[in-house]
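Here's my example:
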Amino acid sequence: MQLFVDGDACPVKAEVEKVAARHGLAVTIVSNGGLRPSANPLLRHVTVAEGADAADDWIVEHIAAGDICITADIPLAARCLDKGALVLGPNGKPFTQEGIGMALGMRELSRHLRELTAGGQTHHSGFSKQDRSRFLGELENCIMKLKRAVSPHV
């Protein structure tokens, strides 16, 4: 089991590192650059070439069933789910096969409405302590779920 983090603009990298260290799990943070490397030997930084989907493509190429991806990117979440990985948003909300179609549709609708009303500008809501807490709990749940799938006595 490995954790893959869509590293650009991810607000929970430190939390991922802390939980992964507790479980002895390898973490790969993928970005277009500009991230400070960690001294933690379980953490690996991968810098990809500039490009709209370069980090996403790298993650999809390397992720497998039984891995976890941390991303807010809905199309990336869909691609990782298709490979059998668990996917968790930085706000702690899991992406599922049952809900990903609706999430993709809502994303497209929101994009269309932004184009009509605000000239395509995006407004992101703030990241709260509750989001961080929910993320930590849900990441722990994902890891334990995968560990139980491998060894039912965990």
